[in-house]
């Protein structure tokens, strides 16, 4: 369509020129005393058009001639800029492929090209590229176990990062410095570098992973636990790995308590999902009893786990967790000077009614009866338990309890037999 319109326009112009010039009898007279010269108007117009074309072409040619030195400088600058960019890209490629010496040399070559461009008029700003080149050189030096060269490049990159480069590059410098400090087992230094990040960058997955490693290395359990929770919410780990990490840090937090008040404070800082973890509840109960705390409170901490393992019937629960829960409750029975409360007796009895052949529950009920001084009932339940128990520790403990019961009623033969069974339990 456009071509057709142009063709029509050309035909129109040609027709106009033909109409104007074909019958144009006008002349232009030039007086130059004592001469007189007459020119056709068409000729004058052609001469003017030709003069314009000649002058325009001459001016363009002179401009191009005078612009040659500037074009040469611009070409040389572009060549240096291309060489600088090529060196930087090749340095990155060599770094990713594990050729660290070549990567450092090419990063230094990029810096040399940037220095050469610094004094050239009209050269582009190379601060961003210089910072990246310093970062690549520092990374290569770190891989080559050259901390002195790494620190030099890091300082130079950080000096550029104050004002003249992008926010992302400054954050990359800080994250790299934190990672290098962590590799040198300098947890405090890594945390200091991370603290310099903006608030938003501190919540990124890479920063949180580095912070978690540094906090665990520095044995700062509480910040490590909070960081692990954030990583779990961001799905930085698989569900199983996240649960394992959080569980380990929660246990470490409980282990760091050295009196009952500290332990209660640590327990209060745990989230509800963490308190439901069997291993965490077992450790909290054992720690409370070891510190001389209230056995009733220890059992109260174990109550959600009891309901999960023996009431609701959690499919993910293991026999090992059930045995650990029985041991934790047994430790509470042994440490308590008070009579076991009726609520727990009812819970144990209800669980035993649901699973009358469960050896663990038989053992636990027998120990509860011992604590209540129900000797006959305890004798009956423990006798049933030793016939089915697979766990060596529980079996040994059950035979010991039966031996003490036999000694209490004066049956030395049964006591000796029970002691031998306890000694041979494996």
Give a quick set of tags describing it:
426 residues; mainly alpha; Serine Threonine Protein Phosphatase 5, Tetratricopeptide repeat; elongated; single chain; 2 strands; two-stranded antiparallel ribbon
The separation of the N and C termini measures 98 Å
The computed structural class is mainly alpha
Mean pLDDT: 83
Helix content: over 70%
The major β-sheet equals: 2 strands, antiparallel
The topology string of helices and strands comes to HEEHHHHHHHHHHHHHHHHHHHHH
Query: Overall 3D geometry?
Result: elongated
Give me the side-by-side strand order of the main sheet.
1-2
The number of helical elements comes to 22
Percentage of β-strand residues: under 5%
Radius of gyration: 44 Å
Total count of strands: 2
Oligomer: single chain
Low-pLDDT residue intervals, each spanning 5 or more residues: none
Describe the structure.
The chain has 426 residues and is an all-alpha fold. Among the domains are: 26-66; 75-164; 353-426, Tetratricopeptide repeat domain (Serine Threonine Protein Phosphatase 5, Tetratricopeptide repeat, Alpha Horseshoe). The protein is 77% helix and 3% strand. It has 22 helices and 2 strands. It has helices spanning 2-22, 41-66, 68-96, 100-118, 127-143, 147-160, 167-183, 187-195, 199-202, 205-217, 221-233, 239-255, 260-269, 272-275, 278-290, 295-311, 319-335, 342-354, 359-371, 375-386, 392-408, 412-424; strands at residues 27-32, 35-40. Strands 1-2 form a two-stranded antiparallel sheet. Helix 7 (167-183) runs antiparallel to helix 8 (187-195) and helix 8 packs antiparallel against helix 10. The protein is elongated. The chain starts with a helix and ends with a helix.
